[in-house]
Write a structure and sequence with these properties.
It catalyses: (6S)-5-methyl-5,6,7,8-tetrahydrofolate + NAD(+) = (6R)-5,10-methylene-5,6,7,8-tetrahydrofolate + NADH + H(+). Its cofactor is FAD. Belongs to the methylenetetrahydrofolate reductase family. Pathway: One-carbon metabolism; tetrahydrofolate interconversion. This protein has 296 residues and is an alpha/beta fold. It has a single domain, classed as TIM Barrel (Alpha-Beta Barrel). It has 12 helices and 8 strands. It has an 8-stranded parallel β-barrel, surrounded by 8 helices. Strand 6, helix 7 and strand 7 form a beta-alpha-beta unit. The protein is globular, with a radius of gyration of 18 Å. The relative contact order is 0.14. The structure holds flavin-adenine dinucleotide. Flavin-adenine dinucleotide binds next to strand 3, strand 4, helix 5, helix 6 and strand 6.
Length: 296
Amino acid sequence: MTTVLDRLAERRPVFSVEFFPPRDDAEEAVLWTAIRQLEPLDPAFVSVTYGAGGSSRGRTIRTTARIAGETTLVPVAHLTGVGHSRAELRNVVGWYAGNGIRNVLAIRGDPPGGPAGVWEPHPDGITHAEEMVRLVGGLGSFCVGVAAFPHGHPDSTDLDTDTQRLVEKIRAGARFAVAQICFEPEQFLRLRDRLAARGCDVPLLPGVMPLTTKRTLTKSVELSGVAAPPELTGWLARYDDDPSGFRAAGMDMTTRTCERLLAEGVPGVHFYTLNRSTATREIVGRLDLGPARSAA
Ligand SMILES: Cc1cc2nc3c(=O)[nH]c(=O)nc-3n(C[C@H](O)[C@H](O)[C@H](O)COP(=O)(O)OP(=O)(O)OC[C@H]3O[C@@H](n4cnc5c(N)ncnc54)[C@H](O)[C@@H]3O)c2cc1C
């Protein structure tokens, strides 16, 4: 099974995409339309997030396994420690392996109440993602990735400590890192600099959500845990009553963000897709990140 590192060694820059597990048949159909539409563009990998509830977990596992079994895509399965004992985590990892999945994003997870809640580890589980990296890495030949936070994780006291935590996850065996959504490329680049200054050179992918609607802006703020810069919100506010104007302006801004990151030599851009493909395909086309590029 191809790993994320194999894909990043084949060519750069690339793009990758993130999906969430569908909650019902209708959402599943939407997701599979997006997967099939993105497949010919040859993303380096596609990842599926891991939810907190039992049924959501089953859907993550099923969806990732189906991507591994029925598509040409390289899947990355997310795994969080929320509510899981170590024995249960080992079981899920075994299930991933049995379905041909070799790439795992090892994450602590948010408390059931969301990012603002207080983290309570399972009595027999993991406390920090670093332990998850070791657990997954100790179970076989997995390519393990971790989450990174350009603005610092919301619980962290300061950027330096948070960067050090990321370094510890990498030293524990993580081979790549995917960053939380960040509106300002400079914030991402500063994180990259902080890592480089500590001798870490694993691929670090910036996270971008195409800004097509007010909902995508709200969702980006929610996920990133930081307010959008006033220049961006001010500009997009002009299109409050004009959805197509908002989409055009948002897509231009997203494209400019990606262009800046690519000009700085990032190995690829990781798109948070909300299980839709149209905007991602459009931006991949604008940036020439699709397969035609490798043939050029
Ligand atoms: C790319 C990406 C994908 C994600 N996918 C999912 C998903 O699929 N499902 C989901 O529920 N959530 C997901 N999240 C959200 C994530 O679960 C939360 O942000 C969570 O609060 C932190 O997870 P982590 O792996 O970064 O944890 P950690 O690395 O453990 O960090 C959590 C906090 O603990 C601190 N810390 C870390 N190690 C130590 C230590 N040894 N001692 C003291 N403090 C420490 C960190 O500084 C940080 O403040 C994702 C986030 C990103 C960026």
